[in-house]
Design brief:
single chain, alpha/beta, Amidase signature (AS) enzymes, globular
């Protein structure tokens, strides 16, 4: 079986249009990859290989008729099982399928449909997306493909998204991000993750966690791949995907002012901070300017996050008001904290909203003299399941896993994570690139310039592919 899916999205899109490869062949290769690695890695909650092939054939038929719906036509895309997808149930990580209304496709999935991107399946999520490690007490936890010896977590809550890219059953993965749920799995599995600005992409048709913080986003193998997919999905992009990629690619590393988020380098697992620091030295050697800045907003946001932020009370309200039947079967790691989430008063909730509004405005001023903020995406090594087997040990890893990523959500920043090295345990390390609200293109342009200087994930991590 030729490994066509290892090529770049640009090359595959070109081959589809020249007739060198077909969407059906891509889907067959993706199915074969899943059959080979899927039983071990467990990326998907629901797959329908025949439906997937039928959608690929429809893309081929459109090509044959001279119809071109953009660079995602015929490209396998996995979808997190929070999104409604026609023909698939939505479990949202719960023991039973949710009511039919949660299968309704929202704008993001409809855009993929209009692009004739075949859906490879629905990937596992943490129950109701409430967790950063990727575990699921009901359906099991996808396995991080970077550890052949033990079952390490893949990151959450988009737990199967990065894994689907690593096993090469999808080229793009849709996720959602409330405190890091795109970026944590991307970092843990050595791929690229894009957290869009709050409100930029619709969350319609997606099971909510925290309406004040929820964003939709994507994972991809490279920044270049991510930009092409971003251009297709993004409602504010007015140029063609090729033009956006070319335009963002014009940014040179030389002269980029990189603000160092010092707090994010603290209390890291061995090798995590070091991998990011090594990448920063290489970027500085290429002409980037490294700037140490004081970020009191980051410290204040972290303190709020540790008290539940906005997500805890909004999640409790959603369960009580819309999903009461699911309360009795909640994951023990969530159920054990539910009383404290419910106990947050309206006065306290409104106080937190007001504080975050002021912090978000303040960090915009703080970032005025830099282009982007940088730090390790996740400060810890992905733990093995036995390391998080108790509620206390789970919490001791879950909060640190989200410590750096929640900054972008609570302070309303856009963010991208790119793989930059391996920690001492041999697990991928991500570098987080944060830009102001609605400066998604800036974050992507900087990420692309960094990728071109440092190398893609495969090149940087020294592997032939991302599934060892």
């Amino acid at each position: 079986m030729p490994e066509t899916l290892q090529q770049s999205l640009v090359d595959i899109a070109s081959d589809l249009r020249s007739g060198k490869v077909t969407a059906t062949a891509l889907a067959e290769e993706a199915n074969a990859n899943n059959q080979s690695r899927g039983p071990v890695l467990g990326a998907y909650k629901t797959r329908d290989p025949e439906r997937f092939l039928a959608e690929a054939r429809a893309a081929d038929a459109a090509f044959a008729a001279g119809l071109d719906f953009g660079p995602l036509q015929g490209i396998p895309v996995s979808v997190k099982d929070l999104y409604g997808v026609s023909g698939y149930p939505t479990f949202a990580g719960t023991p039973t399928a949710l009511p039919e209304k949660w299968t309704t496709e929202g704008p993001v999935v409809r855009t993929l449909r209009q692009s004739l991107a075949p859906v490879s399946g629905k990937t596992h999520t943490v129950e109701f997306a409430f967790g950063g490690l990727g575990t699921n007490a009901h359906w099991g936890t996808p396995r991080n493909p970077w550890d052949d010896q033990g079952h390490r977590v893949p990151g959450g809550s988009s737990a199967g998204a990065g894994v689907s890219l690593c096993e090469q059953s999808a080229l793009i993965a849709l996720g959602s991000d409330t405190a890091g749920s795109v970026r944590v799995p991307a970092s843990f599995t050595g791929v690229v993750g894009v957290k869009t600005s709050f409100g930029r992409w619709s969350v319609g048709g997606v099971v909510p966690l925290s309406p004040s913080l929820d964003t939709t986003g994507l994972l991809a193998r490279t920044v270049a791949d991510a930009i092409l997919a971003f251009a297709v999905i993004d409602p504010e992009t007015s140029v063609t995907p090729a033009a956006l990629l070319a335009g963002l690619g014009e940014l040179d590393v030389a002269g980029i002012r990189i603000g160092i988020c010092t707090r994010h380098f603290e209390e890291c697992s061995p090798g995590v901070a070091e991998a990011v620091q090594t990448a920063l030295r290489e970027l500085a050697a290429a002409g980037a300017e490294i700037v140490d800045i004081d970020l009191p907003e980051v410290t204040e946001a972290e303190a709020l996050f540790l008290r539940g932020g906005l997500a805890a009370p909004e999640f409790a309200a959603f369960i009580n008001n819309d999903m009461a039947e699911c309360k009795a079967t909640l994951d023990p790691n969530v159920a054990g904290r539910f009383d404290s989430m419910e106990a947050i008063t309206a006065i306290e909730y409104l106080k937190r909203r007001d504080q975050l509004m002021h912090l978000s405005a303040s960090i915009d001023d703080t970032m005025a003299d830099i282009d982007i903020l940088v730090g390790p995406t996740v400060p810890i090594t992905p733990p093995r399941l036995e390391e998080i087997a108790t509620p206390d040990s789970y919490r001791a890893h879950n909060l640190p896993a989200l410590r750096n990523t929640q900054t972008a959500n609570l302070l309303q920043l856009s963010a991208v994570t790119i793989p930059v090295g391996l920690d001492t345990a041999g697990m991928p390390v991500g570098m987080q690139i944060m830009a102001p609200l609605n400066e998604d293109e800036r974050a992507l342009a900087v990420a692309l310039s960094f990728e071109r200087t440092l190398g893609t994930g495969r090149e940087r991590l020294g592997v032939a592919n991302l599934c060892r």
